[in-house]
Design a protein that fits this description.
single chain; Non-ribosomal Peptide Synthetase Peptidyl Carrier Protein, Chain A; GMP Synthetase, Chain A, domain 3; 8-stranded mixed beta sheet; 38 strands; 17% strand
Length: 1007
């Protein structure tokens, strides 16, 4: 877990250079802190005492090792001394206690040698005489009236708060430098500045933007900035260790490629990693550092966002080749937040204190977005601060009178092991009313010990709440009744592993299985437990847990195979096994992780917890998994455990201890025990054991294989990037060849068609000639054309045809699609050029003025007269088109003409032409085009006057076209009110009829 949340400064090259040189003083990375008074103020004596602390730490943590550790000032903590991240936390705590100094939070991420620790000591803050007990204070807050219950998107939620109380504090960022408050108004202004920057860089609606940022103000601004610009946020976790850079880049490259991310926002220190991602991910065209983000809001058109648009994509811990991105819409998020509010009774008076990473759904949704919606302040701190000093979490709760908090099980275990009672003097946790334990299996032993220890500091047992959720349910699914406290079920082992019956164990049962109740479904959600055939099982029978509800995802982003596995009709498969007893759901393990040996179900977490408690085994670094045994027709139980023990005798002793421990737990020994060096057992970004991936390492024989040097990893990534760039170059070359082919066909046909058209005396003849030429061009160019609803055209009757305009190809597409002649309405500027003037006049086009209001009125009258007698008019009411997708606003001219002429309007949607040839682009793509012709829309008889009738007719036609263009609504502008803050979009009138005017008739295909 610690590796997953180490901030990005660990990759800052200037800092790393200064550290590895071993220099101390003002030029070091810790310069600028308050100089600590160290023993004797003698550099040699301080170094001697420091080395003694390091040696003692090595001895105490690896007491069984017979290997002599030679500790020097320039020894590598990782390579030479074998201290991993968690061990470094212990070392830093001992150093602080020995010298009475508070080290900077960045120490954990930057130190590589004892000499670096010496430098950090010089910048530390003397803590003698300073009590950590701070007078408890509550943040004063203005009263909040109501909640944004009518909001349909997160942007509308933010708008609601900004309009009512822009100065209300939403986020308090706590760090060792102090606290920074972010109000709703500031969040909107800063996000708007980022949105403008993204739009200036070419971000289009529904394009993905990755956020690779540590906890801080930039993360909050970036998330909403992406939403304001119409993009899709994709949170990814920051790089952790330089030695694992290849694994980090490869995993994230798969995620970014699947999400089709076009931009990535990160901190300057992570730019080397970001550049590697840019090289290996096709389509990732820009990396933006937080230092490059604007500080003031620019001008941009606010994107139209609807409830069913994607609010972000949460990637779960899939493989690098098949990442699973859970699609979460605004409707999903708001449904889950509202259900959590009801289940937990959250109000604006609550205070949520969190150190959870924002790239994880528990931190992003449960902590932040729920607080943003409900109006309660969120006190957020860096995960690194918690891992370095777990007591900082508890003191933040104390200072802010926190009422809500949440963390995975390991966090409570870390507090039990790493916090000294002397650091808790004066602590008051009595304000807490809910402490959620979730995101990984909940240990009943950990909860009991945590409650017992912190009860004297005011923590109530009733506040502890084991919960359950998953990204596919947005975040939360099960919550226990408020104030009940943890509920543990002891069941008979044999009946459970043999028959999957969770029967209560006798009080004197020596080896019961213990499972924790995770509560009941959120309001509006349902669960069921099913067997292998999909039939629902009874009370206290174990099976697969499935759920349904308004916050359930529609599936995985661009991953239909995994989506099919997820969806079972109306139910979604959680991938977990569980049973129900007295209304509570008890989770028993992951389906894919349960080991089946000899007809028995073996639950790995029980084995891992027991083995991890053995001296000499790294706790939390044990994986138990099944490996297929074809000869026996069952699975072999393999226990993979990390240790630093090097002596053969000691390793034999550890193997024996593991076998005895597993035998005590299961009643039978494991098939194989594998002792591995540190960092062999793979974990997710949130610290969960990746059992399947660890099994792959074992079966591939890579246990104990040395990691490649950083330079080798970077070189290989560079080669991979170069290959990707070559492929992209070949793809661009192929597209250029296709474009050359299309333009060659056009170059041959266009002059000939123009000449024939110019010589044709009748527009109807010219239309037929051009229709044949257009269909021939599309066929030879390889652009398939489908025409749907041809029967909706009112043959022989006056009408006005209106179509969306997305590409240079649209005129040709309409000519190819429409079976009878139409009179195009074109802008008057085209009369200034000979070629379009002659061509369009021969086709019978009419020309209108766009800039002179007086002439526009006269043109509308003239068009009305033309519409009465025919041939029917064909108009692009948007008036123009642009590169970015989305249906623009419709001008009234065509609809005013239809009202005056008393003729219906026929809506036509053109889909795919923008992708075939966009504005400002002259290199076409091979892409199918679909033309959908809707049913005629009559003039509304209830309109009080012609203007109102034209407006209503326009709205009806636009509402009929919009669902069929496949691009969304772009008729939304960001208009600054007097406060200088954005206001909600104006909602255009909807179609009044129940029937879809774009219902399909006969279909015509041109391939």
């Amino acid at each position: 877990m610690l590796r997953a949340v180490r901030p990005l400064r660990s990759l800052a090259e200037p800092d790393r250079d200064r550290l590895t040189t071993g220099r101390c003083g003002a030029t070091g990375p810790f310069a600028g802190g308050m100089a600590a008074t160290l023993p004797g103020d003698d550099g040699a004596e301080v170094a001697h005492v420091l080395l003694d602390v390091v040696r003692a730490t090595c001895r105490d943590l690896h007491r069984q090792s017979t290997r002599r550790v030679d500790v020097r000032l320039d020894s590598s903590l990782d390579r030479d001394l074998g201290l991993d991240s968690l061990t470094r936390v212990e070392l830093l705590l001992r150093v602080e206690r020995t010298f009475g100094v508070r080290l900077p939070e960045s120490t954990l991420e930057l130190v590589e040698t004892p000499r670096d620790l010496l430098t950090a000591l010089r910048a530390g803050t003397r803590i003698s005489g300073v009590s950590p007990s701070v007078a408890a204070r509550a943040t004063p807050r203005e009263a909040l009236q109501g909640e944004p219950d009518e909001a349909t998107t997160l942007l509308e939620v933010l708008d609601w708060h900004v309009q009512r109380h822009p100065s209300r504090t939403q986020i308090i960022i706590s760090s060792e430098e102090g606290e920074e408050e972010i109000s709703y108004g500031k969040l909107m202004l800063e996000a708007a500045a980022i949105a403008a920057r993204l739009r200036e860089s070419g971000l289009e609606a529904r394009q993905a933007v990755a956020i690779m940022l540590p906890t801080g103000p930039s993360y909050f601004y970036a998330y909403f900035g992406i939403l304001l610009a119409g993009g899709i946020p994709v949170p990814i976790y920051p790089p952790a260790r330089l030695s694992q850079i290849e694994d980090h880049v490869r995993r994230h490259a798969g995620i970014l490629a699947n999400a089709e991310a076009v931009m990535l926002i990160t901190v300057p220190e992570a730019m080397p990693v970001a550049r590697l991602l840019e090289a290996v991910v096709p389509g990732l065209r820009e990396v933006i550092a937080t230092t490059d983000l604007p500080k003031e809001r620019g001008t941009f058109a606010r994107a139209a966002v609807k409830s069913d648009d994607i609010a972000f994509i949460q990637y779960t811990s899939g493989s690098t080749g098949n990442p699973k991105g859970v699609v979460l819409t605004h409707a999903n998020l708001l449904a889950n937040i509202r259900a959590i509010r009801q289940a937990v009774a959250i109000t604006a008076d609550d205070v949520f204190v969190s150190w959870l990473p924002l790239y994880h759904d528990m931190g992003l949704i449960s902590a932040w977005l729920a607080s943003l919606y409900l109006g309660n302040p969120l006190v957020v701190m860096s995960p690194l601060a918690f891992l370095a000093r777990p007591e900082s979490w508890l003191w933040a709760i104390h200072r802010h009178r926190g009422t809500l908090t949440a963390a995975p099980n390991f966090a409570f275990e870390l507090c039990l092991k790493r916090i000294d009672d002397r650091e808790l003097e004066g602590l008051d946790l009595s304000s807490l009313r809910l402490v959620a334990n979730g995101a990984e299996p909940v240990s009943p032993e950990t909860m009991d010990r945590f409650i017992a220890r912190f009860a004297k500091f005011g923590l109530r047992r009733a506040a502890m709440a084991p919960v359950y959720g998953l990204a596919e349910a947005t975040v939360a699914l099960l919550v226990p009744p408020l104030g009940r406290g943890p509920l543990v079920d002891c069941i008979r082992r044999q009946s459970f592993v043999r028959d999957r019956k969770a029967l209560p164990a006798a009080p004197d049962d020596p080896k019961p299985l213990r499972f924790v109740a995770c509560g009941r479904p959120l309001p509006g959600h349902r669960i069921r437990v099913v067997d292998a055939a999909g039939a629902e099982v009874g009370e206290r029978e174990e099976g697969r847990l499935e759920f349904q509800g308004p916050s359930a995802t529609a599936g995985y982003y661009r991953n239909p195979d995994e989506t099919r596995k997820l969806l079972h009709g109306e139910w979604l498969d959680t991938g977990d096994r569980a049973y129900v007893a007295d209304g509570d759901v008890y989770l028993t393990g992951r389906v894919k992780d349960i080991i089946i040996r000899g007809g028995r179900n073996i639950y790995p977490h029980e084995i891992e917890e027991a083995v991890g408690a053995l001296p000499g085994i790294r706790k939390g670094c044990v994986a138990a998994f099944g490996s297929a045994d074809p000869a026996a027709g069952t699975e072999r139980l393999v226990v993979l455990a990390e240790t630093r023990a090097a002596d053969a005798m000691q390793r034999d002793h550890l193997r024996g201890a593991i076998v005895r421990t597993v035998s005590d737990v299961l009643g039978e020994p494991p098939d194989e025990v594998v002792l591995a060096p540190p960092h062999t057992v793979l974990k997710t970004s949130s610290g969960k054991i990746r059992r399947a991936a660890s099994r792959e390492v074992y079966e591939a024989g890579r246990v104990g294989a040395r990691a490649h040097a950083v330079w080798w990893q970077i070189a290989r990534l560079g080669w991979t990037g170069a290959v990707a760039q070559l492929r992209a170059g070949f793809a661009l070359g192929g597209r250029a060849l296709y474009g050359a082919h299309v333009w060659a066909v056009f170059g041959l046909l266009a002059p000939l068609v123009w000449l024939v058209t110019a010589a044709t005396p009748k527009p109807a003849w010219a239309w037929l000639i051009n229709r044949a030429a257009a269909r021939l061009f599309l066929r030879v160019a390889g652009i398939p054309l489908r025409v749907m609803g041809v029967d909706n055209l009112p043959r022989g009757k006056p009408h006005v045809l209106v179509a969306n305009h997305a590409s240079y190809l649209d005129g040709m597409v309409l000519v190819a699609a429409l079976p009878a002649p139409y009179r195009f309405v074109a802008k008057r500027e085209l009369l200034q050029s000979l070629v379009p003037r002659v061509y369009l006049r021969r086709l019978g086009a009419d020309f209108v003025e766009r800039f002179s209001p007086k002439q526009s009125v006269a043109d509308a009258d003239r068009l009305a007269a033309v519409a009465r007698v025919g041939p029917p008019l064909a108009v692009f009411p948007e008036g123009t088109f642009r590169r970015s997708p989305g249906l623009l606003a419709f001008h009234l001219g065509a609809f005013a003409a239809a009202v005056q002429a008393r003729v219906p309007v026929v809506p036509v949607a053109i889909r795919g032409s923008r992708l075939a040839l966009a504005a400002e682009e002259w290199l076409p793509r091979r892409h199918a085009i679909v033309v959908t012709i809707g049913a005629p829309i009559a003039i509304p008889g209830e309109a009080p006057d012609d203007f109102a009738a034209a407006v209503t007719l326009r709205n009806l036609a636009r509402a009929a076209i919009l669902p069929h263009v496949g691009e969304g609504d772009a008729d939304v502008a960001l208009r600054p009110p007097s406060s200088g803050l954005p206001i909600p979009r104006r909602i255009a009138p909807r179609c009044a009829g129940d029937a879809d005017p774009m219902r399909h008739g006969r279909e015509v295909t041109s391939d």
